[in-house]
């Protein structure tokens, strides 16, 4: 049932404040303002050597964001791979490593094959899944469910933000267990997570502006997305979302890579979406944005009030999100990124919920 929405994708985008809140409630103790994981975890964050994350598509980008979090909060090295590459690479895995699989459906063939490889190599196996009765869930030592509810739209939206919600709670718990985060650090981070639903609801209010902007995208043959830090995986996620439902070619790049190649693409016809909350690397991203502006690129800047003021650039359009703690920006900024892809696709008249050539669950390799 689509409720009052035209598409399942729109409904699922709008459900995010609620389902992210449900998911967080599962992994946070809101009285003590701490993370809360099962007592009987089959591994110990204190003694883990490494985490190896494998996943496909959008779930892979969630894993890539988590790499930044685990490394920052827990000083725990993370390898992150596309499952279809990982499964054939025969990567050496040291004892006492955690293999973490991220999958909405829990049935993705390449992710499952990676899981079986890691199991054979004696790794601890954990999975973040949305479908708890899935094969990946069954074959894992422990699962961390996302409580997104059934996701019908082929393009993943609410599963992604719920995956991020679980991953950030895991990374904070790991940081606390390993002694890299104090009780006070944990409390501050949990306070930030608790605010996500409110900020996400505020972000959804940008929809009318995004809808108008989407019309100007429909003429583009390519779109570039740029971001740094945890906004970099989000840039790739934005590009994936746009190409899969609007069929407009898009690429996500780390902003710092711009001058190593993609800057050659910039001209007056290329929209460039810059995801840049006002964080400690904001200035670096802005200098990349100035390089785009100097070459006539059409910029869409997603930032916050401080960023909008500091950017001092004639941006084509600025989407101003609320000011929020840096840790939660990839979750909240995902919403305008999804809405942009959605409205471009609606304007183009594509089959948003069932884009051509795609299946919801990829059970063959
Ligand atoms: C993109 C999308 C796909 C899936 C990928 C993995 O919108 O939906 O890229 O994320 O096929 O699927 P799961 O998470 O079911 O393993």
Automatic annotation (TrEMBL):
EC number(s) given by UniProt: 2.6.1.16
Active site: 360
Reactions catalysed according to its record: D-fructose 6-phosphate + L-glutamine = D-glucosamine 6-phosphate + L-glutamate
Enzyme superclass (EC): transferase
Cell compartments where the protein resides: Cytoplasm
One Gene Ontology cellular component annotation held by this UniProt entry: cytosol
Gene Ontology molecular-function annotations: carbohydrate derivative binding; glutamine-fructose-6-phosphate transaminase (isomerizing) activity
Domain SIS: 41-180, 213-355
GO annotation (BP), single: protein N-linked glycosylation
Alphabetic keyword roster: Aminotransferase, Cytoplasm, Glutamine amidotransferase, Repeat, Transferase
Physiological role: Catalyzes the first step in hexosamine metabolism, converting fructose-6P into glucosamine-6P using glutamine as a nitrogen source.
Quaternary context: Homodimer.
Protein name according to UniProt: Glutamine--fructose-6-phosphate aminotransferase [isomerizing]
Species assigned in the record: Rhodobium orientis
Gene: glmS
Full-protein interval shown: 244 to 608 of 608
